[in-house]
């Protein structure tokens, strides 16, 4: 391992925090710079897959995470009239959170990165409050609208580096998601009090272009997401400020008219769930695979490199897989010379790009299956969601079978009967992840 290596992680989301936890265990020095002034929950619940649960098991975090997570046993698809279309078995899915595992002094809050620079000797970032930070390595884990990526691409363009056109095209989205978690409703739904298992209910509205995802959470709460198509006017004013904001009450009224009668399998209408939710966030839904992930001492991970639509619940899992791979390779990096750093990033790209590409293609297919309207959409869904269990199981296994761990922490056996298909990530071998 390179001595006195300093890593700067921009972004304290799932990718940045996961990498921080893994570097902490590797004894590698790091700092997270996060633009938010403090941690803020934005009302989403995340489904983590067996692909990444193994590493948390290895770190001894699984049982603790189980305490506030709930196990998803299946995804069940409903028509608007609550008839079931079909189900996909997702046994062993759980949701978790990471922040408490990173020492407080390693995160600097309120640091919005505006631009970055790098040369043979190091990397530097400049923040909106006038401060700057130096490091040997810069990791851009700052999400889909990554400032690190924009700065990296700008600097590459200045050097006439041939960036693929798709890298510089703006993100396009034509769907939004409203999301929230209700207050405890266990007085209304006593069965929610001690719920440990649930399924994700996916309701495909027929009269209006909405898809609702609802699931029971621990503590009697219900997590919900409502996805819909953007209005023409919104499509024309796509700017970055619009991408993520608390949703104003006034705007919600427009949508509420449409979904007032949209039932959920939990017996409540979507309107009731919204009424029982204090903080509702709005996100734009888009998918994009960036081709250029690294140059010099800078590398992108998570949504900054590959943005998935949430239909398949894979974005956070892919971000954590990035972090596992990056930590393994950094741990083996012999020195902090530019050559060794570039070797690590090249290997990281060789391992992670094909897997992220496959995940994006898969989630785009699922998203189109769910959102296709009319006779063709209904017929396709009835066929695909009622395929024999063995076929859907095989597809789910193919997504989840690669379960990498950290090379430098005591190994743990693979749980379950599905063999692990992920090879160890090593700098000097032909390892690859699936
Ligand atoms: C509705 C919805 C449901 C989802 N459900 C699932 C699911 O069930 N399972 C799943 O696997 N995935 C799911 N996802 C996807 C998942 O949430 C994302 O893929 C994941 O959060 C990406 O993590 P990240 O750390 O790369 O980026 P982000 O979570 O976007 O984090 C980036 C961080 O960087 C910070 N930042 C940004 N710019 C700057 C800057 N200039 N300077 C400093 N800091 C900056 C941000 O404040 C943020 O904290 C869902 C997504 C949505 C929208």
From TrEMBL:
Transmembrane segments: none annotated. It comes from the Eukaryota. One of its GO terms (molecular function) is FAD binding. The keyword DNA damage does not apply. Keywords: FAD, Flavoprotein, Oxidoreductase. Residues 5-152, 279-333 form the FAD-binding domain. SUPFAM superfamilies: FAD/NAD(P)-binding domain. Belongs to the paxM FAD-dependent monooxygenase family. This is FAD-binding domain-containing protein. It comes from Actinomortierella ambigua. The lineage of its organism: Eukaryota, Fungi, Fungi incertae sedis, Mucoromycota, Mortierellomycotina.
